[in-house]
Amino acid sequence: MHIGPQACTDWYGFNTQRAPTDNPLVRKAIAAAIDKQILIDIVVKKAHVSATTFTHPLSFGAINPKTEQVGIEFDPEQANKWLEEAGYPNGQGFPEVILTHPEGESYQAIAKGIKTLLKHYLNIDITVTALDWDRFWDAIQPLNSTTSPHLFRVSWCSDYPDANDWLPSVFHRDTGLNWLNGNNLDLFVQAVDEAKPISDPTQRQELYRRAEQILTEQEVAIIPLYFTNAQFLVKPWVKNWYNMAYGGQHIRNWSLVD
Q1: Secondary structure of the chain as H, E, C letters
Q2: Which of 102, 111, 160, 208 is the most exposed place for a label (fewest CB within 10 A)?
Q3: What residues pair up with 227 in beta bridges, in sequence order?
Q4: What class is the 2-159+220-256 domain?
């Protein structure tokens, strides 16, 4: 067995227009109450890497989320403080929240895991629903304050190893899904637009770091779950096989040895 990185991130998006997830404190509380490592180890049962940021660390311009400490870590105590500050101490009076995912056993298992974690750590109940892919995308594009779910499962796989194919591709107001709001959206767009033409790694990384902070820490528009790893079974007589996060399998380099 070989385990290697893929250029993909799995995450949940928030509907920032629909109560109660229009409140950043509620979004922060939910994000801090999800133990991603438990989901990976117990539910997903694969060698993925828990994430607090959106952009895969292998991308040019990306930060290392572990050393930079960007995003919201699992912290049930802080999560309860945020929820109380939002007006729901110990989950009391918390309104209905709908979590929607595409149909599929793995999506369903993770959604149920999140429901269990939120009940355990925040004492809130959420409603989990599944939709076929067409209805799912119709529900979240564009988001609205009445019919779109409060939480929804999404994933993104990049085409090339640069942060430009992550943050602006998905969340820029002109080209992306436009899930950010107000002044934070302006600051996010300013950071990613300024980073695009810069070749200096340090300058680019600082700008994308700022964009990640807005997305995952201030606005909390998404909950990054994990960076995906691929698992391969390779026969011992297949030589020169190797995994690539970008570009897939390079079969032309393989050889067979008795």
Answers
A1: CEEEEEEEEEEEEECCCCCCCCCHHHHHHHHHCCCHHHHHHHHHCCCCEECCCCCCCCCECCCCHHHHCCCCCCCHHHHHHHHHHCCCHHHCCCCCCEEEEECCHHHHHHHHHHHHHHHHHHCCCCEEEEECHHHHHHHHCCCCCCCCCCEEEEEEECCCCEHHHCHHHHHCCCCCCCCCCHHHHHHHHHHHHHHCCCCCHHHHHHHHHHHHHHHHHHCCCEEEEEEEEEEECCCCCEECCCCCCCCCCCHHHCEECC
A2: 160
A3: 9, 49
A4: alpha beta
Q: Which residues have a Cβ under 8 Å from the Cβ of 67 and sit 6 or more positions away? A: none
Give, for all 258 residues of the chain, the pLDDT tens digit. 888 888 999 999 999 989 999 999 999 999 999 999 999 999 999 889 999 999 999 899 998 877 778 999 999 999 999 999 999 999 999 999 999 999 999 999 999 999 999 999 999 999 999 999 999 999 998 888 889 999 999 999 998 989 999 999 899 888 766 677 777 889 999 999 999 999 898 999 999 999 999 999 999 999 999 999 988 899 999 999 888 888 777 888 899 997
HSE of 212 in the Cβ direction (CA atoms, 13 Å)? 27
User: Which tokens in the block code for residue 212?
Assistant: 């990640």
Tokens of 224: 């990054």
